[in-house]
Amino acid sequence: MSVRRVVPNLPSAAPEGNRAFYGLLGLEEVMNHGWIMTLASPEVPAAQISFMAADPTAPVAPDLSVEVDDVDAVYAAVRESGAEIVHPLRDEEWGVRRFFVRDPGGRVVNVLGHR
């Protein structure tokens, strides 16, 4: 299993303001589903930050997202560890397979893979 990227998910009710502010730092919008917007560095595309109003299919909004190469293997390992699964493994309509798990500090981690 390998990690492809780690993205902080910050709550935001003002995505336009965030786009403008972080644009001053060189980040550009690379994804916008209306409820989540991701900005990235054009030179280092894995350097990203997301702003989220709410998650439409999960019970909570995650604190960060970790993209992995084999989400099913990670899900099996996390379940075996006994960690709390907050949102079960599922395929989402926007093209990701994901689940949420709570880390030891209480943060909710969105673990995902692109289909």
TrEMBL record:
Q: Which residues form a coiled coil?
A: none
| Species per Swiss-Prot/TrEMBL record | Streptomyces termitum
Q: Membrane-crossing residues?
A: none
What's this protein's name? Answer: Glyoxalase
Pfam families tied to this protein: Glyoxalase (PF00903)
Give the VOC domain ranges.
1-114
